[in-house]
Amino acid sequence: MAGTDDGAVAAADDALYVLTAVLLTPAQFPSVLGDDYPEACATLGLAPRGDGYGLVLGQDGDGARWTVVIDDVSLVAVAIASWDCGLEYELSPDEHAIVTALPGWPLAVAVAAPGVPAPHDPGPETADRPPLSPPDTSVWGPAQRRLGADEIASQWAAWRQQINDDEFAAPAGRAPVTEPPARAEENGEGAAGPSKGGHQGVRRVLAEARAYVDSPPPLGRVRSSFASGDARTLRADGPGWSMVARTDDIAFVLLDDEPGEVLPVGRGPELPGLLDALDKLAVRPL
């Protein structure tokens, strides 16, 4: 567990105006911070903790940005669920739950506390490390690729309805990550099986995903969440790639080497078995 900087905690805890909060757990973490849970923790200078953390983002009385890390994950989960339902909830963690306070925010926050100066990074006299800042998503790279996968997972129906299954019979065009794809990229059998046809990058992704079944990857690199019916939404990440899939449907692949492209993958004869195997080893929200 990361050591507590008492001075930073005192500075952040002095009238902290809470703006938002997020979970940092093996099953739920801001994917923009890393391909897996340990990497996301390392981005913040935290040791991976089995139960995870809650991140509370706010401003102090001078308007400075602070990220307060707490070990009371349930408290943050209840707050997020309440806010999502439009309910008020005062998130006030006990002092003993505070692990550390980090200057800055690791994620973009669109709101600001009323009655205090505009958000700004705290001065070096109150923090002994450089302030956190959101990853640069203005250019294509790992952070933008993972954000694109987040968008597909959250808007699955909108993306899926643009795909005509008949188009998996032959390779076709590609789609930008900012809009639902208009054409299918991969042949279902070639993408899921060992065929040498199809997109080389997609073949590499599927091969690396299969390797996860025999050699489990770092915690959080494969995650499973609820979907409609009996299906699950799968999210898998690896070096230079992200994959989003439904266990009863197709998959979408994004690559660092293919800026702005979304590559749909048909089910074929082997993809269903791969997705089922990944779902069995995936971490799930409590």
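The record above closes out task 2.4. Task 2.5 opens with a second protein, given below.
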Amino acid sequence: MNSQFSQNLITLFFILLFVILTYVISHAHSYIINYDDENVKALFTQTEWNELTEDRIRIPGVPREIGEELVRYGKKTLSELRNSVLTSYLQDGTIYDINKHYNQEWIQMAVRTLVNLYENIDAPLIRNQYENWFTVAFFGTCIDLCMRDIQLCTDIKRTDAPSLASANRKNRGRSGNTKTRKLTGRKIDGIVYIVDRNLEVGVIEAARSFLGVSDRKYLLETFKMPKTLRDMYADLVRTANYDEQKANNLQVFGILHLGLWIQFTRLYRAGGSICIFRKDVVSHHVDSKFSEDGIKSFLKLMAAVYQHKLIIRDNLRILNIRNANIEPGDDDDLLNDILNVGNYSSTSQSSIERFADSWPTPRKKKRPKSENSKKKSAVKKRRL
């Protein structure tokens, strides 16, 4: 993106920001452009919009060994699938190594969980269930087990977990001698984070069912998610010391699972303080009963989950965190790193001049009470 065009877009965006803040609550108040927002898109030409929202990073591809492992479970009948999940993925005489076989174990456990639900004569996937039931009974192995990775040192917090990144933004200007209490972060249904770092990289929002894109629950979750993702991205940018090249290759992701319907989202930087929130065009659905096409669809969902774990891996590589654990390096590289400790390059790297935090969400103005309602509220109810 050339500098002149970038400046024009930034100027235009602040005009847009003022207009939107005047009339309606939008993602724009947090420097976020929602790719699906037609009202925002209408303010740009098609060329400007394509350049502004260009998906430079994209989603990592599925490694061939993961694809081949998933294909093993593409069976035509439930009995064949049951036999597959009871067959060890290890060759005869091979001892389990968590660094080599963890992904195979995750795949088999996730498919086995689905097989158990299909075989249950009470048909739990067909019945109405509470929101947390899906998390515990199904997505715990399908998503959580994948994201809980020993090599990446990642884990996942579930059920109204307060976001550390959101708390960091809220308390950014807090001084040491203040007497006010520290504000807590936004509560999320699931947060993927780096265990030994104060970094969060993914958001999960859940609901008991999916009733369409116009449903209030879906609209609420998709409105809440981008701002939390941007808080997480802002912390990653600070960890990268505002290095522009690194910031342009960082991205964070979100997962919506509403009942058995799943959609993935991502957030990345367009330029300046502006970020793009993008929902995947393809959504996934897990069939409530076994079918050959249904199991294929589930395996594609598993591949998508793994792809988003690779986003974490790429972020860690960009930030130079645990590269040795992810991909074994050469001893000469380690020697050079040790010999160059304390020596910094004299060439100045391009850095982000300013990456602003999200603005607090504007509160809706309360309607003034009518005279009748004031009189009613003034009359105290008699206790019986």
